[in-house]
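This entry is retained here.
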Amino acid sequence: MASKHKQQKRAAGVRVHYQPGLSGEQEILRPTLVNVNGRSYRKLTGSTFGRKEGVETGTTQMGDPRGRRPVFVDDEYDEGEDTTVELQGVEPSPSGGYLIRLPIPSVFFKYIIGREGKTKANIEKETGCKLKIPSRGMEGDVGIEGPSTSCLANGKRRVEIVVWSSRNKEPPTHFISIPLNQPQVKKRMAVFQEKALAIRRNASGVTPAVFQLPAKLHLTLGVMRLFSTEEEEKAKELLKECLEKAVPSLGSEPAVISLRGVECMKDDPSSVDVLYAKVQLTDGSKRLQEFVDTVFAHFLERAPDLMQREFEREGVKLHATVMNSKLSLSLSHQETGPRYKAAENRQRPREGFDARGIFQELGDFDFSEVPLQTVHLSKRREYGADGFYKCVAEYPLNQFQTISL
């Protein structure tokens, strides 16, 4: 007979996985914490699931091609705690029960349904709810219908966890950028490309297709996934808040970005995937690094579900990409729309290019200087009239502090 603890866990729609032998001590002692709609969960990963001795199978398992599925453990539960979730917007359903509507972006519908409808069927079976999901190609709320509000609470929690665990399966949509597409930089980028192509000496992979377009040159402060107008608006407000916190770190002296010299992401210059211009302030100070790290850290703290965590441990790597082997995978990296996405989604293996001649003859190339004046929230794969990424929001830095930039 199941213990009272387990019975209460099941009533709350959350089960605990007690399987030994999880991957590493760190996962047990310092697991990833997940906040889903105000509730905290520990995210663990196990390699074997099912009903075995000493194992309580988690109801929030998500499919993983490697056979490793995340298990979410409700950290807010305690023995005797009232696990009732307060629901907003409950209305009578046509069937005589109750109904709530969740504003979920359509990109997540396929994950809620699951392969052959299995995820949806499991949620309905285990919570006693019926899920109403808009048809393919349609936008709209996900309806959850059930005989009681406790069923609705369990169904709502399960759907929210599916949505949260699926976010990183979708490609990033936006990023925080510092545009570098000033006329003097674009002119020098064109010179760099001309010189690099002239000295390639049959260097493998050095073709016009791997060079970044001068109009798209930028610094990336953080990458995010925004799937609705509401998330986009939230990101805009948070970025403004981050800049209010970060701009004072620039001080009162002018901040001018110098782009000089090249580096790569690999130790082997004969097979390079990304070549980028070195970035620093002309006065040699660390003010720019402190500024971008503060922006990233504050945004991640305030909205960890929106921001990609790639810079979390080591800080933001300041770099301006000038060559990228991935650009050659598309039919033309100036294109947008279905042809561009089809080419990208084929996921052909990228092939590095030989940059030894570039390092030897252009290793200290001067791409010019850019005054730090503005930060953008940019949208990937959409472009403005100037060829730069579509600007969702622009923040002149002098509005946050009266300094000479």
In short: The chain has ten helices and 15 strands. The first strand starts at residue 32 and ends at 36. The first helix runs from residue 4 to 11.
